[in-house]
Amino acid sequence: MERDQKLTEELVKFSNSTGIDIIGFANPKEYERFEEKNRPEAYLKNVQTVIIIGIYLYDIILDAWSQDLTSGKSFHYLDSILESRAHEIKDFLLKKGYTSTIISYNPGLFLKDSAALAGLGPIGRNNLFISEKFGSQVRLRAIVTDAPLFTGNPIKESKYCKECSICILNCPAKALTQEGYDKKACLAYNLSHLRKLSNYSSLWCNICIESCPYSKKNENSNLKGYFD
Questions:
Q1: What is the DSSP string of 111-175?
Q2: CA 34 to chain centre
Q3: pLDDT at 35 over 60
Q4: Of the candidates 37, 187, 189, the residue with the CA atom closest to the CA atom of residue 103
Q5: Which residues, 6+ apart, have CB-to-CB distance to 194 below 8 Å?
Q6: pTM score of the predicted model
Q7: What are the CA-CA distances from residue 35 to residues 49, 50, 108, 141, 163 (Å)?
Q8: CA-based nearest residue to 38, from 106, 91, 94
Q9: Cβ atoms within 10 A of the Cβ of 50, count?
């Protein structure tokens, strides 16, 4: 199968115009180590490429969750924007003759791993994707497509974390250690320390993002001014 460089460049340019800050492409063959439900083929039979898109968290309000306690339904502000942009990419590729599927979060694909497999950056000791430009101040979303886009080279080790343990020392939940990440401890701390913004909206702990010396707070985002 021949990868289409021209289409890849056109898609990158188009995604930037919609407010996307990061876009990368992973080879579906790199997902063989995951369970079947977490592989691209589970969502599109003739998948050729996994597309990873990300938007910079330039404003803390973008990281807020809104939940209706009566119905139990919730949404994340930036995730909602990412889903909208994913539909725009899907429509762009459809006009080119290709089929795409926007991946849900559960079971879905592992987004941090997907970003690393696309060559966008590593997974750090904070158990988060670290991008070169924005650090961990990024939210991600995945799309699978039968478009033969050029894929990146997987990144398997973090160059940022070799001699750094700042996130481990600062984690109030003690969920980060040299041995790995304790998901249960992280979840328990977050649920008991929600920062309420209103009766419906709240922020989860993001100290692992804020404490990382590579997380940027004053970078430009393609999304800034998009709604003006």
A1: HHHHHHHTTS--B-TTSSB-BTTTBT-EEEEEEEESS-PPP-----S-SSSTT--HHHHH-TT--
A2: 18
A3: yes
A4: 37
A5: 202, 203, 204
A6: 0.92
A7: 18, 16, 11, 19, 32
A8: 106
A9: 28
Report pLDDT digits (tens) over 156-177. Answer: 999 999 889 999 999 999 999 9
Q: Residues of 114-140 as b/e, b for ≥16 C-beta within 10 angstroms?
A: bbbbbbbbbbbbbbbbbbeebbbbbbb
**CA dist., res. 76 & res. 171, Å (int):** 23
Q: Residues, the chain, total?
A: 228
pLDDT digits (tens, 9 = 90+) for 48-94: 999 999 999 988 889 998 987 677 788 889 999 999 999 999 999 99
Q: Determine the Cα–Cα distance for residues 68 and 91; give it in Å rounded to an integer.
A: 31
Residues 73-108 as b/e (b if ≥16 CB within 10 A, e otherwise) read: eeebbbbebbeebbeebbebbeeeebebbbbeeeee
Q: Which residues contact 38 (CB under 8 A, 6 or more apart)?
A: 31, 107, 108, 109, 110
